[in-house]
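User: Hi! I'm a student and our assignment asks us to look at how structure tokens line up with a sequence. Could you show me two examples?

Assistant: Happy to help. In each example below, the sequence comes first and the structure tokens follow. Example one:
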Amino acid sequence: MRHTISVLVENEFGVLARVAGLFSGRGFNIESLSVAPTLDPSLSRMTIVTTGDDRILEQINKQLNKLIDTVKVIDFTSEDYVERELAMIKVNADESVRAEVLRIADIFRSKVVDVTPRSYTLEVTGAPTKIDAIIELLRPIGIKELVRTGPVVLGRGPKGWRQAE
């Protein structure tokens, strides 16, 4: 089962390495990891996507909470949340397919962020399923490069980190 975990941590040197070490040392796989400072520059928020059964997730949560730098851990698997991901896709765009690439970009509300005589680079944001769908449509045209951020999540409604503590 796929789990999305959000971890609020002290924004200090080595915290990311300790979290990654926790996962690797126990044989847990991180499918994606996104880290950035919050409104409070002394704190960072990690969004971690992993897989495993409920027993594994319980162990992960306990281990994350034991880390000194951890402020709060939220497992969004059973929560109501908004999930978004960003991808940049460099696709072949010679004269014969430029119009088709632009139509696909328009359908997915993506932006053309770079143009060369032989390629377009698209920026697309949305749910991971949306990213997967545009990739599958662009694949036959010829994807030259692809980079994805992995998902980031926020709980729905007024409750935030400060109110949840």
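Example two works the same way, sequence first and then tokens:
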Amino acid sequence: MAEHLTAQQTAELAARAKAVRRSIVAMVTEAKSGHPGGSLSAADILTTLYFAVMNISPETARDPGRDRFVLSKGHAAPVLYATLAEKGFFPKEELLTLRQINSRLQGHPEMKNIPGVEMSTGSLGQGLSAACGMALGGKLSRADYRVYAVLGDGELEEGMIWESAMFAAHYKLDNLTAFVDFNGLQIDGPVSEVMSPLPIPEKWRAFNWHVLEIDGHDYNAIYDAVQTAKTVQGKPTMIVAHTVKGKGVGKMENVAEWHGKAPSREECELFLADLED
């Protein structure tokens, strides 16, 4: 694997991320419900992981040596579904069945019926625990796969997160790399006002994690941070990714209202045009 992304790889990731964002807006609009803001903020992280980092594909989805990904903030399911469809796990047309009766694509990821979903998530705090279990399993079986997880910054208000933080450090899970999607907003407003988890990097360092801070919309920064995490021994790594809620859609950016609100048809057309620009 290259030490840094090439200009061509970066351009390809940008194109993939744009497609993922367009799918997010379209599918949430069609469903008339969902969580677009935090899905859009995490799009660059998932795109980089699935298209430049992880050893995973539709063909290797059951390979014991595959890398694992857990979306701990399960309400952001649209970004995971859109990324999996972009990767070829299921047809993109299926994205428009989000939250519909008899659809596989429920409002939160479900591992039994959706190809590529490693863990059912949605009860905030539990996804990181599952990722810890996967990482410990890899250690015990001497496997060389790696585990990745994405957490919400509001999710850090859950006590279970900090139990997992202790667990991962205690068992020296250096095959675990997690991200905090630090967009600063949750459904009720700024995380600093609802139940402040700040300062985030210092907390994870105190729990004996290796901590990196990056721009969560910079593909090279995301990629380089993950590569650095692979060199860390005896500690899990937390990448605190500074992001923008609703990234890519001007009228959604940094607006808490779009945490769990679906666009109208008219808004959808405007937002898709915004993404194209």
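Here is something you could point out in your write-up. The chain has a mean pLDDT of 97.
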